[in-house]
Structure formats: structure tokens, C-alpha cells
Amino acid sequence: MEKQQKNKGSIMLLVVILIAVVILLNTSVMSMTVLNYRMRLTNALLIENMQKSDSGIDEAYALSMMSYELAYYNTEAYIEELLVAINQDIVDLNNGQASYVSCENKKYIDSISLTMNNGALENQFLLYFQSSFDSDYKRSISNFHSQIDSDIKLALTGPTSQAKNKVYHVTSSYENEGVTRKNSIDLVVLPPDFDLSDSIATINLPQIPIVRNRWRIEYGE
Predict the structure, then answer these.
(1) Residues 6 or more apart in contact with residue 106 via CB below 8 angstroms
(2) What is the chain's alpha carbon radius of gyration, rounded to the nearest angstrom?
(3) Hey, how many other C-beta atoms are within 10 angstroms of the C-beta on 74?
(4) Is the pTM of this model over 0.70?
(5) DSSP letter string, 102-123
């Protein structure tokens, strides 16, 4: 009888141990399942945020192309008007109807030959175009409201000079559920090619007016 009770006691102890082991295994499996699920959610969130942040870069590029087009037409109109005024000044100077000293556009006229100073006009074209682009693009980024997601934010620094080109550094960031993704890119703005021959201006657009350069991930958390 005593032996039977001991056997029953051993069996009970074994059952308790087995139950404890099963519970422990189930808990471990559940923990791993929850961890994997959270990792999947985080990865999905990172991918979504990356796509949204990349979309901000695309929007910034689209805005730069719009500013480029506006700057081109503004500069073209400005130069055409300036050329008319300079040519009239040259006619008046050669006819003795005006004085070079008091001439409003004298910096674009050679003081000896009283002809067009091509270099000065080409430089003015470049400066006007760059100024026009800069003011409009900075305004566009400052007033930016994403058409894709209102939480996409853009920041702009620059420009810095690279020969005749200007380089703008654009950063796009997107945050959702505590996960942030920030990407950045350099936009290299190539000005139109301006050529002046026999007082006739020719303006040619680059094949790719704005080049995307040095795309990189600032951080992903």
C-alpha cells in the first residue's frame, strides 16, 4: 500500500513537471511569435516610411523643375527687353544723342567701340536666371504641402556653387508611429546656355537641367 502511494506521488510529480515544461515551451513559442510579429510590423513601417520619404524627394525634384521653367521664361523675357534697351542706347550713343557717362546700360556697352559687351550680358543672364530660380524654389519649399502625405516634411540648404552650376541640398523626412525615415539628395541646377552673336541672343536648355546627385539615407529609426 505504501509502495502504491509512493508510485502515485512520483507520477503526480512527473505530471506537474511535464505540465510546467509544456507551459514554458508554449510561453517561449508565444514570445517568439509576438517578437516576430512586432519585427514584421516594424519592417513594414520602415518600408512604408522609406517610400513616403522617397516620395518627398520626388516632390522636391518636381518643384525644382517647375521653378526652373519659370526662371527660364522670366530670364528670357528680361534679356529680350534688356537687349532692346541696350541696342537703342548704342544707336543713341553713335548718333551723339546720348552720353556714355549717363547711359543707364553702359556696363553692357564697350566704352571704346560703343558695341555690345557680350561677356557682361552673358554674366547678367546667368545671375538673373540663378536669382529667379533661387527665390522661386526657396518659396516653393517653404510653402511645401505634400500631395502624397501631409506628414512628409522638406528642408532645403544652399545653394553652393559648382562652376556655373548651383547645388541645393534637399532633405525629406517622414515619421509615423514613432518610426522616422529621413533621406537627402543634392540637386545640381545647370543654367541654360546663353550665346550672344551680332546682338542676337540664343538660349539653349541642357538635356537634363537639374541632376540628382548623392542620394543617401540620413537615418532610419
Answers:
(1) 89, 100
(2) 35
(3) 16
(4) yes
(5) T-TTGGGB-TTT-SB-HHHHHH
pLDDT in tens, 88-109: 998 988 888 888 888 888 898 8
> pLDDT value at position 161?
94
Note the pLDDT of residue 18.
65
CA–CA distances in Å: residue 207 to residues 77, 102, 122, 126, 211: 21, 42, 20, 18, 10
CA 180/CA 46 separation, integer angstroms: 8
Domains in the chain, number:
1
User: Confidence band (pLDDT; 50, 70, 90) for 34?
Assistant: very low
Q: Which residues, in sequence order, are bridge partners of residue 165? A: 162
Print the domain residue range for 187: 2-220
Q: CA-to-CA distance for 46 and 178, rounded, in angstroms? A: 10
In terms of Cα–Cα distance, which of 152, 131, 29 is closest to 71? 131
pLDDT tens digit sequence for 67-79: 999 999 999 999 9
Q: How far is CA 125 from CA 31, 75, 100, 192, in A?
A: 67, 7, 22, 9
Q: Are strands 210-220 and 193-197 parallel, antiparallel or unpaired?
A: unpaired
